[in-house]
Amino acid sequence: MRLTSARSTGLAPVLAVALLAAAASSSFGQNNEHEWQKDYPLGGAASLTVQSGDSQLTIHSCGECKAIQVRVHSGRDLSRYVLEERQEGNHVFFSLKEKPHVGVVIHWTEKDATQVSIETPANLELDARTSDGNLSVAGLTGNLKVHSSDGRVSLEDVHGELRLTTSDGNVTVHNASGTIDARGSDGHMKVDGQFTAVNLHTSDGGLDFVLAAGSQLTAASSIESSDGSVSVVVPRNLAADLDISSHDGRINCILPITTDNYNSADSGGHHLHGHLNAGGVPLSIHTSDGNLNIASL
Q1: Which residues lie across from 72 on neighbouring strands?
Q2: Do residues 56 and 1 share a domain?
Q3: What CA–CA distance (Å, rounded) separates 126 from 119?
Q4: Beta partners for 121?
Q5: What is the pTM assigned to this prediction?
């Protein structure tokens, strides 16, 4: 039994590259009906684009290794999936998606779940997308972009420019550094790390954020929940111009703020503007429907 392999079509040069890649890997196949793996040797800075559907995706560092390794394991017959893969220089593209269903849809157990596990060099440019399944990334540094349509997202020990979006699922970012732009539509968001710029938004869910000791924001930042409580903890020596508001909820702020404006009304919500440690870059903290708790480390 072979795993179905499909390749993108288009202009003749692109097709030629795809056909050459197919010829180069034609001798490589899955170990059995439930396993597939391949190594992609690298000669420079690594770049990875990965897409998965109806499977769990895990991406983690192998340190200073010189290859990207992709492994697929499933309790199901892999002939149910369509696989696309190619390598162009130091860029690897990998896609694994379930074939369209016809008739009755079977809900598989965790034992049957399909796992895509990828090892990469620690320094990586990443674009990872899942359409139905959890996504986790660990130990990477670089321009990291992740998107999940339906599933949990977990990032740990990641550093650089971090951008992530989720349509339905919780988000956890732990021990990160650099800049972060994270947007979630339905789920709880929990983020901690040492950042220079922060933009966090949840449409439906609570938000917990801890800015690690030693952090100083260098660009305007915002933390916002449209429907959920917000908890923010920052270093006591953080310098920022704070704009804090809750349309329908309480504000509990125990930071040593020099206040220059505070409005509170039962019908109009609560709004606080002030300076933390003489002020600095703007930091906006807002919730439309929920309480706001702000404290220092």
Answers
A1: 36, 116
A2: yes
A3: 12
A4: none
A5: 0.85
